[in-house]
Amino acid sequence: MQIIIIGGGEIGYALAKTLASDHELCVLDTEPGVADRFGLLDVELLTGSGTSSSLLERARVSTCDLLIGCTGLDEVNIVACSIGSQLGCRRTICFVSKEDFVHTPEGRESLNEHFGIDQVVWPEAQLADAIERIIMAPGSVDAGVFVGGEIRLLEFRLGSDSPLVGRPISALDLPYGVVIVAVHHGETTSIPHGRTVLDPGDKVVLMGTRKGMKALQGQLAPDAAKRRLRRVTIIGGGDVGLRLAQHLDSEPGIQLCVVEHDHARGEMLAATLGNALILEGDGTDLSLLESEEIGRSDVLVSVIDNDERNLLACLIGRQLGVGSVITRVSTPANLRLFERVGIDVALSARGAAVASVLHQIDGGRSSLLAVLEEGQAKVIELTVPTGFPATALRNLGVPNGAIIGSIVRGGQVIVPRGEDRIEPGDHLLVCATGSSAEEIRELFTTGQ
């Protein structure tokens, strides 16, 4: 695909880093200094404003498949996408920072209606959705769903008492329909094999059917899986906190509490949420958290728009006995730091939004479904071409850095074993690291 990215900041760079190997990219930014950041990527850089018609024409916008407006200014993103659409770009995606740009009070998509923008991405909404998926998968540190929910992806951090630790993967008693597709050990993510032994502290990514993954959660988080009522506390009732609370408020089995320091905002939350308890106060106030027994929460989510206060709130919650802590991180460099000091899940609004965009980009022979561990591994969907000979998985010659996690055939989901055959028309969900994603794409081209 030919893709134009307006803005070379954190979002633009994250998109370019993931897409550069498979697509023709052109990045536009007003600052000449961004060239240093993109030096190692195979992208074309143009200096100037994305709202300039002449610059967009230099970037060949008339033949462009996708234009993404992701500067820090909503107005620039909107105008750039609108001009790009008028000049012939096939599809536009616009990043915004305000919910008002997503839709009107009547529910209409105003930017699509008035500016011809195909999709609007509001990072705070993507972050709330990502946190919700993790909360609804007890014990996990990341979660995803594919094929209409029939295939699930869960990531767990292993403790010393985990049943997955200390034995080769081939000897593990995994539920039927579940396969380990990636392991993050130290700073490295790899595709495991039967002899791989998992250690305490590893993060392991598993793929499987709904039934198999439900059984897996019973193994890895038995207490949470058995509990009928789970207490969730949200600190911060801003855009992310409100959206997350709205989703959880009607969930059966969730007892919700929201801590918000602003009186007027708290009143709005109380009027909006029918079942949640709203507490007015500082989410980093130890005496408040103690008096309200926040330590009894199964999950504490801190989504204040300040990294230091989020970290403090989570560490206090951990000391009070909260089972799992999840926090928002505004500065990407803090993601690893937060995990190292004991935060179970640290997520970036920008990172969640980038992931949501990547999921939708068609790679021609494949589609990118998920990015794991900041790009160290990918989950892609491949369609087996009609001329490909039916081949048993063990004879397929899958690269060492890739694993076929699921086969979708005629609406049926198969988590394959060595004897299962890959047939023409199958949709394959593959986890791959490094250049192996391209190698497995080539496998299904040269094998025809």
User: What is the terminal separation in angstroms?
Assistant: 23 Å
Quick one: CATH class of the largest domain? Alpha Beta
CATH homologous superfamily of the largest domain, by name? NAD(P)-binding Rossmann-like Domain
Structural class: alpha/beta
The fraction of residues in strands falls at 25-35%
State the CATH topology of the largest domain.
Rossmann fold
Parts with pLDDT < 50 across at least 5 consecutive residues: none
Largest sheet: 6 strands, parallel
Q: What is the CATH-assigned architecture of the largest domain?
A: 3-Layer(aba) Sandwich
The helix count comes to 15
Large-scale geometry: globular
- What is the spatial order of strands in the main beta sheet? 3-2-1-4-5-6
Can you give the helix content as a percent range? 25-40%
Mean pLDDT reading = 90
Number of domains: 3
How many strand elements? 24
Gyration radius over CA? 23 Å
